UniProtKB/TrEMBL annotation:
SUPFAM superfamilies: Nudix. Transmembrane segments: none annotated. It comes from Caenispirillum bisanense. CDD domains: NUDIX_Tnr3_like. Residues 116-258 form the Nudix hydrolase domain. One of its GO terms (molecular function) is pyrophosphatase activity. Gene3D superfamilies: Nucleoside Triphosphate Pyrophosphohydrolase (3.90.79.10). Pfam families: DUF4743. This is Nudix hydrolase domain-containing protein.
Length: 290
């Protein structure tokens, strides 16, 4: 089997099945026709124009937009039209350092095909023979997404109002009981991107990656119940599971493949898919409205 199949599975977006989503005349996301029909019930907040879905032009400030969108989402969640809200806000932006257009519950980000960000950290240590061992999470059976699947050591969506590093410190404490001093040693090491069809819409995600070299005596312990266990695996076992099975949550193979490429565990001379992997992990996001 192929490592590339994981990248293909995370890049299934077809713009033919969507309408552009516009804010103040700028295309910022993608909306399915079925979602557009739901939003048409709220003409004070959304308009359908020229095969596009537009936030009402009378909503001119991020605060006004956020309040109006929140009211719509609360009504849609209450009548079962969308999944229950999660009470965690994402920032609607076209780039992370660009202006914040509005905030919305993270559940709804795929409904609008908005860019979303998250942080993931790989915890690693060296074996005496120079090889790598990686700490792998094992997701709890009651997780709404990918129950019982294998996971990265630390990961989470990026809430509005936090820096990536602050979010990493928060997730490290909640998910693994890692002390702040160790978590602060995390090294930023780039991003991966994908555009994936989901049940509710488009997941146009950017994962901001960190590496943490952990000591031999570090043992992660879940405090938020998201993981049932953690496993210390040789990198070779991780790669074999990635190549031959589907043991991991859908986007975690991308995180781990990127780690293995950056650390030379997968090299250009012995990995026939090397160039395709590198390119596939760092795709441009689909330009909304094109």
């Amino acid at each position: 089997m192929s490592y590339l199949r994981h990248i293909a599975a995370c890049n299934t977006f077809d713009p033919a099945g969507y309408r552009p989503f516009l804010v103040d005349g700028t295309a910022v996301g993608w909306v399915r026709p079925a979602t557009a029909r739901l939003l048409a019930r709220f003409p004070a907040t959304f308009r359908l124009e020229d095969q596009a879905v537009c936030l009402h032009p009378g909503l001119t400030s991020p605060t006004a937009r956020s309040a109006a969108v929140a009211d719509v989402l609360a009504e849609l969640a209450a009548d079962g039209s969308i999944e229950p809200l999660r009470d965690e806000l994402y920032a609607a932006k076209t780039t992370w350092h660009g202006p914040e257009l509005f905030r919305l519950d993270r559940t709804a980000a795929p409904l609008f095909g908005l860019r979303a960000w998250g942080v993931h950290a790989t915890g690693w240590l060296r074996r005496p023979d120079g090889g790598y061992r990686l700490w792998i999470g094992h997701r709890a059976p009651n997780k709404r997404v990918a129950p019982n699947k294998l996971d990265s050591l630390i990961g989470g969506g990026q809430p509005a109002g936090l820096t990536f590093r602050d979010n990493l410190l928060k997730e490290a404490a909640e998910e693994t009981s890692m002390d702040a001093a160790l978590a602060r040693t995390a090294v930023s090491c780039g991003t991966i991107t994908y555009a994936m069809e989901s049940e509710t819409g488009l997941k146009a995600d950017t994962l901001v990656l960190f590496d943490i070299a952990v000591p031999e005596d570090f043992t992660p312990r879940s405090t938020d119940g998201e993981h049932q266990a953690f496993h210390l695996m040789d990198a070779e076992e991780v790669l074999a599971r990635l190549r031959d099975g589907d043991d991991f949550k859908f986007n975690i193979p991308l995180v781990l493949l990127d780690f293995c490429i950056r650390h030379g565990i997968l090299g250009p001379d012995d990995t026939p898919e090397y160039e395709a992997l590198v390119t596939g992990l760092h795709r441009e996001h689909p330009a909304a409205g094109r």
